[in-house]
Amino acid sequence: MQNDKVGNIIRKTRLEQKMTQKQLADKLDISDKAISKWERGSGNPDISLILKLSDILGIDVRELLKAYEKP
Hints:
By secondary structure, the chain is an all-alpha fold. It contains five helices and no strands.
């Protein structure tokens, strides 16, 4: 499922940067519950957050978008 792929990328990268879900959420001006939801595969970030999310995590936006591709 694509939700799992996106969530795994976000979680892995966030942890590599020693950032909490709350810290990431604050930088995105959203709730930490949303971050938790993404990382559990229960949802995905809104497309309007993808650029900012990739900047904060220091990853190429294409890496995040590739996770949405079907296998």
